[in-house]
Design goal:
alpha/beta, five-stranded mixed sheet, globular, about 575 residues
Length: about 575
């Protein structure tokens, strides 16, 4: 392994370590617990054989009774050391107790202090208890670390996934390390899937990934590179240790050359190419999401112009043209009340209707529907996301309130909340008004929040969720698995439902590890008393697998595409005629 490989490995390991579930207590906590233990143990030894009495409320009390109290305190200290201080706490606890045992035995057999016999058994049982606690804790940590590895690896190609890439970007930005973020998209890949089938298409992706990984692993480009698969036929390349734009483009061209070389799969020759767009930190932006957005914008422009030059750096002109166009479309849609909603059905595993998720939709001036992938970031960028949210809330809640009054259907309306909107000071009052104005029972409304809100704004999010929960509203954590929260951390939030992201469902039946990951999420969620919704279920095989691993709810094209409000109403009326 060369120096670049070692450096790359260390940075990735550091990134994964920052996500690790285990959180060792500070050294000060360990020292405090150790001092408390020895203080309590010393007090026990001083009081255990004492015949003295003290007066409490004029009643003589033997000093001996305090031995039991401080013995309990010392045992709690060693248990806390095992729980919070890991291996160091465990070893220290065992040694500390073992050191005490000869003293207890001396007191019993030499000094005849038989009152210490219970203390001997307590010490032995405490050793057994902390061994059991430590072993179980280690097993859980290993299991969670395995889940973490699966959560950061693309199951098809073996490359790091989009989440691992995002965490690396966060680490580089945090330490002000210059890099270029490159978005890569295979051109016309859909035609391969359409003509040759998904199996061949997947093999092509694996071959492309293998070629790019080889360049990065062997350091052939002369820069320090990190390749990941983001989604479908989209890859990401993070380039470091460059001296100029020429170095960046030279590196990208090496990856481009590896892709355009003939690929032979099962006797078929494929000649493919890709479009590349990139943005540089800190020159183009110091914000992670902006850098990713800029690189994607440049890549799309490279794809659009469809010239022999398929590598394009983001420029302010691209930013202005792309952003202004979509920003104006969002403003115009809100002004003209061209915001509407679709409702995607959710079913329990027995195909009984659970309810609907309200999905925001916008139409352009010419009546064409604007992609949510475009208008949602634009609404956030120009400060209109709360207006967009409210428009969808009000329209979907008005429809839903009428529907449940008409049919008496025990179904749920799920609405998505953006980070910025949720953090507004009047958010709770908006939700109260939504329930009151539309006469919706609180337990038939579900608020969906992304896992990133819990991680980035934990304290305030917790306060808001607790208040919503006290009103009777249900809470769902959306896109679960794309971030990686500690389960104990997650358990501190008053949630009802986890929604497993579609990316994990897509790979579930093509990878044993991916299926085990989904199964583990479901099992652990049930232990924590959460229900689980699988998103993006499209195939019978996926449905069969989810049924076999006890998933609670299904959302996806297999049982229901997003519906207009008229079609949604007809679906409910057919089930609950009133």
């Amino acid at each position: 392994m060369n120096n670049k490989d070692i450096k790359e490995t260390r940075i990735l390991e550091k990134t994964l370590d920052s996500l690790e579930i285990r959180r060792q207590a500070p050294t000060g906590v360990f020292i405090l617990l150790l001092l408390l233990y020895f203080a309590a143990a010393l007090t026990v030894s001083l009081t255990a054989g004492s015949q003295k009495e003290i007066l409490i409320n004029n009643t003589p009390v033997s000093v001996y009774i305090f031995a039991g109290i401080f013995s309990t305190i010392s045992n709690l200290c060693v248990i806390f050391m095992v729980i919070f201080c890991g291996k160091t706490g465990f070893i220290t606890s065992v040694i500390a107790i073992i050191i005490q045992i000869p003293t207890i035995l001396t007191g019993i057999f030499i000094k005849g202090n038989y009152s210490s016999i219970p203390g001997l058994f307590v010490s032995l049982l405490t050793i057994i208890a902390i061994i059991v606690i430590f072993c179980n804790k280690r097993k859980l940590e290993k299991y969670q670390l395995k889940l973490l590895e699966q959560a950061t690896t693309d199951t098809l190609t073996g490359l790091p996934n989009g989440f691992a890439c995002t965490e690396l970007l966060n680490e580089l930005i945090k330490h002000n390390k210059p890099f270029a973020a490159v978005s890569i998209d295979i051109n016309d890949f859909k035609s391969i899937n359409d003509t040759m089938g998904f199996d061949i298409g997947n093999k092509v992706l694996v071959a492309v990934a293998s070629r790019m990984k080889d360049i990065a692993d062997r350091g052939l480009s002369g820069t320090l590179d990190f390749v990941s698969r983001v989604n479908g036929d989209e890859f990401s390349l993070i380039i470091r240790d460059f001296k100029s734009d020429e170095d960046i483009e030279k590196t990208i061209k090496q990856y481009e050359a590896s892709i355009v070389d003939k690929i032979n799969i099962d006797g078929y020759d494929f000649f493919i190419n890709a479009s590349f767009g990139y943005a540089v930190f800190p020159d183009d932006s110091t914000v992670r999401d902006s850098l990713i957005s800029y690189s994607v914008t440049a890549m799309k422009e490279a794809k659009r112009i469809n010239s022999s030059e398929r590598i394009l750096r983001f420029t302010s002109e691209l930013k202005t043209e792309n952003h202004l166009a979509i920003d104006n479309k969002v403003r115009k849609a809100l002004e003209d009340d061209n915001v509407f909603f679709n409702l995607q059905p959710q079913y329990d595993i027995s195909h009984n209707l659970r309810g609907f998720e309200a999905l925001a939709r916008l139409t352009d001036i010419d009546g064409t529907v604007i992609s949510p992938g475009e208008f949602i970031p634009a609404a956030e960028r120009v400060g209109l996301i709360d207006s967009l949210d409210l428009a969808v809330y009000n329209k979907s809640a008005a429809f839903f309130g009428d529907l449940i009054r008409k049919t008496k259907a025990p179904i749920t309306l799920s609405i998505n909340v953006s980070v910025k909107h949720m953090m507004k000071s009047n958010f709770i009052e908006e939700i109260r008004g939504l329930l009151k104005n539309n006469q919706i029972p609180a337990d038939q409304l579900e608020i969906e929040i992304t896992e990133s809100i819990l991680i980035e704004s934990a304290e305030k999010a917790s306060d808001i969720l607790n208040e919503l929960k006290s009103m009777g509203i249900r809470i769902a954590i959306d896109d679960f698995g794309t971030g990686y929260s500690s389960l104990s951390y997650l358990n501190s939030f008053p949630s009802d439902t986890l929604k497993i992201d579609k990316s994990f469902i897509d790979n579930m039946n093509s990878s044993d590890s991916s299926q085990k990951y989904v199964e583990a999420i479901i099992s652990l969620a049930h232990v924590m008393d959460f229900k689980v919704v699988a998103e993006g279920v499209e195939e019978t095989g996926q449905l069969d697998t989810l049924r076999s691993i006890n998933c609670d709810y299904i959302q996806g094209f297999i049982w229901g595409r997003p519906l207009s409000k008229e079609d949604a109403e007809q679906l409910v009326v057919d089930i609950y005629p009133g």
